[in-house]
Inverse folding.
């Protein structure tokens, strides 16, 4: 038996819904209550649950398509035998609308659509056409004075969500500031590793607290600043932001939750095989710490408007000195 999935009415005045993402792919088993898709209306973004169990065998509307309420957009069958071989899915490349010359109503032709190539292509006019983004992402981008079109220009796939505002901020800053400064060093990491083990056993604190403290101290000594906020990113997507007071001991460093733009960022790669990682332009001075045997690779990249060359060198030297002799710098 085949069950039709229709675009639901998620609001009293809703006429259409924009399919932001399919959460199930053709051929996958579906159970009643599974999240089938993510739909945006003019007021909100909602997850839509499957109303039938079986196998998703056909998708009739692609991501990024605005569909009238009540229109059939997918088929769920009791078996998966009639699944399409090349359906649109969450892995499909986004579509970019391209204006085409007007045609007569008799021709019945439709606007041309172009598939985004594998390598992101910069668009000549990044503000043309409709940009697909969640209502919250649009609202926050407007409040922060950010142009979502820059993500289109840089090749980021649509639709956009709040998490995409982070690279957008970096792109915006890079465009306004221009150049970056970068420095890298290799140091012996044995003392810092032993200090991390001691810190965990004796104080119950993660080593990221010390990373944040040393980065803040090095930056404050070189550039200045009070009560610096330091965000530590790890490769497993966990993010922790600390506020480091001016005269600190590690027990006085506090967690911060609502910091939109930290003063410093640390990318912690010590539990991976990576020794360095850079994702897009730096929004603020950003340290990276990678492990290679007994050695640490430490780098610092900063927008040129926040540091000059001498400050960058002094800051990374202060940071690696603290990593090499952590106990000395806590006295």
């Amino acid at each position: 038996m085949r069950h039709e999935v229709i675009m639901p009415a998620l609001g009293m005045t809703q006429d259409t819904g924009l399919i932001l993402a399919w959460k199930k792919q053709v051929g996958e088993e579906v159970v009643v209550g599974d999240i089938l898709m993510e739909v945006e209306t003019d007021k909100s973004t909602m997850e839509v649950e499957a109303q039938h169990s079986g196998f998703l065998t056909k998708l009739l509307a692609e991501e990024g398509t605005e569909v009238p309420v009540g229109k059939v957009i997918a088929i769920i069958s009791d078996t998966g035998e009639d699944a399409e071989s090349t359906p649109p899915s969450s892995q499909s490349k986004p579509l970019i609308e391209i204006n085409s010359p007007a045609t007569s109503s008799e021709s019945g032709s439709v606007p041309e659509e172009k598939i985004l190539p594998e390598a992101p292509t910069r668009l000549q006019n990044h503000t043309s056409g409709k940009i697909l983004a969640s209502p919250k992402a649009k609202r926050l981008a407007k409040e922060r004075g950010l142009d979502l079109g820059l993500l289109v220009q840089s090749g980021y796939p649509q639709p956009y969500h709040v998490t995409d505002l982070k690279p957008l901020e970096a792109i915006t800053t890079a465009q306004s500031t221009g150049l970056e400064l970068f420095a890298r060093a290799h140091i012996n990491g044995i003392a810092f590793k032993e200090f991390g083990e001691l810190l965990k056993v004796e104080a119950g604190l993660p080593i990221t607290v010390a990373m944040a403290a040393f980065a803040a101290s090095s930056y404050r000594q070189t550039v200045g600043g009070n009560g610096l906020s330091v965000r530590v990113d790890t490769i497993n997507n966990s993010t922790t932001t600390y506020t480091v007071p001016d005269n600190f001991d590690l027990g006085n460093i506090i967690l911060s939750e609502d910091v939109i733009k930290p003063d410093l960022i640390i990318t912690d790669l010590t539990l991976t095989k990576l020794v360095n990682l850079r994702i897009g332009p730096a929004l603020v001075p950003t340290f990276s710490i990678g492990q290679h045997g007994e050695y640490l690779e430490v780098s610092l990249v900063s927008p040129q408007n926040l540091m000059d060359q001498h400050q960058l060198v002094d800051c990374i030297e202060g940071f690696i000195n603290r990593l090499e002799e952590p106990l000395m710098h806590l006295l």
About this structure: Residues 85-128 have pLDDT under 50 and may be disordered.
